[in-house]
Amino acid sequence: MEILADFWDHRTDRWGVILDAGSSGTRLHIYRWKDPARAAKHADLEELHRLPKLKTEKKWTKKIRPGISTFGEHPEDVGEYLRDLLEHAVNVIPEEMHPDTPIFLMATAGMRLLPPRQQRAVLSEVCDYFRHNTEFSLPDCDRHIQVIPGDTEGLYGWISANYLLGGFDDPKGHAHGKDHHTYGFLDMGGASAQIAFAPNATESAKHGDDLKLLRLRTLNGESTEYKVFTTTWLGFGVNQARQRYVKDLVDSFLLEGEHEVPDPCMPKGLRTTESGGFIDGTADKLTLVGTGLFDQCMRMTKPLLGKDKPCKNEPCLLDGQHVPAIDFDVNHFVGVSEYWHTTHGVFADKNEKVYDFATYQKKVLDFCSQEWGDIEDGLETRKKDHSRDAQEACFKASWLINVLHDGIGVPRVGIEHTSGTTGNVTKEIGEAAKEKGFLDPFQAVDKVDDIEVSWTIGPMVLYAAGQVPPRDTAKELPVGFGANIKGIPSDWQHAGSNWTALPLNGDDDGWTDDLTEDLVDHVKTKSGSSFLLFFLVLLLLFFFFRKRDRRMRLYTRVNAMLRRHHRRPGSPRKTSRGLSALAGKLFGRPSHSYERVIEEGDAAQFELGDVDSDEAESDSSGSVRQGRTSGLATPKNNVHAFDDLRKQPYPTSAIDRSGMAVRTESRERLVPQMLTAGRRSRTGSPTRLKSPLMSPLNED
Prior knowledge:
An 8-stranded mixed sheet has the order 15-14-7-8-10-9-18-19. Strands 1, 2, 3, 4, 5 and 6 form a 6-stranded mixed sheet that branches. 34% of the residues lie in helices and 13% in strands. Among the domains are: 238-311 and 348-408, Exopolyphosphatase. Domain 2 (Nucleotidyltransferase, domain 5, 2-Layer Sandwich); 509-597. By secondary structure, the chain is of the alpha/beta class. Helix 4 (78-92) packs across helix 6 and helix 19 (509-523) runs antiparallel to helix 20. InterPro entries: GDA1_CD39_NTPase (IPR000407). Belongs to the GDA1/CD39 NTPase family. Pfam families: GDA1_CD39. It comes from Apiospora phragmitis. Keywords: Hydrolase, Membrane, Transmembrane, Transmembrane helix.
């Protein structure tokens, strides 16, 4: 029965691939979830009110350096750069799932700094490489391969954090007071920083035009909506901030004829170039010399916040950018990426979760006042990357403290208090929030339940939620996000997926036929009489509990598959009599049979899908090759059914996979009569619609 359970899991899984193309490197993430319609059928009442459950594993993640923005001057090399990531994804995801697996590359701040012409060239090369070297679903390069805006990155991060923490699935358990149950999100990379949060009711009413409307769909088909503020500060990532700091330092302190500049944001005695590299002994090279004066470092980095810039739309935080007032009584923020690495990488044990300002500041002061030689001695047994981390740690710590407390206004726990904290608010906090410990205004996180908190989860949560069939198709609005107005705004970003009904009840002819075929495929990889006996018993049970006409159809399919799997590749076809005698006894038909001969390969290859002209190669690709799409497949004589499928209750995005282009070497040479060859539709359903987006999936 364990084997059957494995098959069932494989048949009901979806996969998604997303590459986070950041400023310092590109990280591959792979996610997996059960088909939402199947999951809903077997879910209990509590699970029906939750979003589809995504799974990932550490071994599915892989990172390479540097970032793709370094290919701006030579975009033709970006494909080879991504080769290892693609090969990793190909090896993780079962081969038969590749055409049904969406692949995304979303670039962030590093690519935003490139000129538009270079951005387009790099993205075009990426799309072309993906299409020529994988079978993953890539119907529209403009949507799948793109530089995402900073506010979109922040929103994805907000979705990820609340999805993992449980703010979406358990509102009561995560109540923070004032009917608020979501968490704020802070992210900082090398080039930019983001903030995203749901303001309290007062601020939401006051700044409604500044918010984004997010719509998700739980397994029971109901929609949930959230109003979220998100913005980004380009140039406020740690690397870009460091470049601005060094420029100001050199302009202010470099004396004429000298080549050394004192740097209070480095440990005593550390000597580096402007870019942070070690000095190679050249006497006339500009050198930064660490003085270890952290208090002075804090004072010199604070002006980089841009708090003195005019604010055209009150209130503002950093760089004169508008942000609604933050109620830290209910807006509990989690910080990821540099917020985690800077608070835990050098100064704290990774098991120390809670950020405490006074404790953190003391650790930073103790570390940064040391001689660099003493710090180096403590790094000898560590990884080589720790040396670079240690020399940058003091600047990063000063920048993080300034951004958090003087920039965003997060209260210094233990020193400052939020304006409205009362005992009543504490009582209102949900049990799940207390259990997880997210009660402070800010907490740095890396993982939740052993899953990395990454903004890349956000697009996949949307994609999976978009596959849930709505309860009322006539009234249901699409999953996605856009301007905070009723209906479907013009800037609406669709989830990128689609839903369709599955044969969950009644006639199960379709999925049992497919399961039988998978069992035949899988038996080749197993050995031993016990498994063979189990397989035969299971096959006979499937066979005898079906109606007469279905038994006949199943016999035909299994007999054809057995002939195919027992014949060596390239060998001539021979009419198999393996089941013919048995068929004569069971169905009263002659023992001899005639085989229809078509081109080498499975007859299912000729089950043609609708290829919409709108889903053709994107202009960003620069290639004339048809984009690989996947959607509703049907025999040729039922192709008229696609006219109805295009009439959906709401517009779908270009990411929707409206047809699967079957690849054969001589497809264009097939005569019209042969286009009707393939699997027969189940009884009573002349327009059997098999959607790879919603039909059960296979896995080895």
